[in-house]
Each structure stands twice: as structure tokens, then as C-alpha cells.
Amino acid sequence: QVQLVESGGGLVQPGGSLRLSCAASGRIYSTNAMGWYRQAPGKQRELVASMSWRETTNYNDAVKGRFTVSRDIAKNTVSLEMNNLKPEDTAVYYCWYYSDRHYWGQGTQVTVSS
After folding, report:
1. Which are the contacts of 27, defined by CB distance < 8 A and separation ≥ 6?
2. Taking a C-beta distance cutoff of 8 angstroms, is the pair 49, 61 a contact?
3. Summary mean pLDDT of the chain
4. pLDDT tens per residue, the chain (114 residues)?
5. Cα–Cα distances in Å, from 66 out to 16, 31, 79, 89, 100?
6. What is the pLDDT of residues 11-32, one digit of tens each?
7. Hey, how many other C-beta atoms are within 10 angstroms of the C-beta on 34?
8. Pairing of strands 102-104, 77-82
């Protein structure tokens, strides 16, 4: 089994920064993708950023240039550095890992508001 635990969400003003972290436990393989999704009220869950084999990254166009995903293979952690946050970034952010199926964390709220 795989468990994912997020931390680091909160309230921030537009233009501010936040860093999300996710600690994974269980059968985690470095060759499998890991990253972040988000879900805003009334919207579908969407990919924010992911990192897969050989540190290949994939970003949602809406966050390119503002967010950076990183992964520590030795510690089984994945982080999301979010800069220049906008009100439309407000959502519940979920840590994600894919192996035999999708695994999700419990989610952490990010609110961008003045």
C-alpha cells in the first residue's frame, strides 16, 4: 500500500508564495510518476505538475513559469514551489502517485485572496 501525506497549504495574498510538501510511504518506485493535482469548487480535478522517470516534468499551462515541482527519491518526497500566486490558483491540492493505480493524499487547501 501507498500513503501520501501533504503539508504546507494555507492563505496567501495574490503575488505571494507557498511551498507544498508530500511524504510518501509504502511501495514507491522512482520510475513511477509523482506530482500534484488540484480541484477548485465546482471544477474537475486537474493536473498541476508531475515528475516521472529521469526527472521529466509536466506542467499545467496555467502554472508554467510560476510553479516548480521537485522530488527527492531518497526521502520519497515531492514538493511544489508556488510563486506569484493568483486567486484562480485557489483549490484543494492533492499529492499524487501512480503505480498499479492512482494514489491520492488527503488534500491541502490553498487560498489566494487579499
Report:
1. 1, 2, 99
2. no
3. 95
4. 899 999 999 999 999 999 999 999 999 998 899 999 999 999 999 999 999 878 899 999 999 999 999 999 899 999 999 999 999 999 999 999 999 899 999 999 999 999
5. 11, 26, 14, 11, 31
6. 999 999 999 999 999 999 988 9
7. 25
8. unpaired
CA distances from 91 to 10, 43, 110 (A): 10, 10, 6
DSSP string, 29-97: -TTS-EEEEEE-TTS--EEEEEE-GGG-EEE-TTTTTTEEEEEETTTTEEEEEE-S--GGG-EEEEEEE
Task: Let me know: does 35 contact 69? Beta carbons within 8 Å.
Answer: yes
Instruction: Give exposure, 62-81, as e/b (b: 16+ Cβ within 10 Å).
Output: ebeeebebebeeeebbbbbb
Torsion of CA 24, 49, 101, 10, to 10 degrees: 50
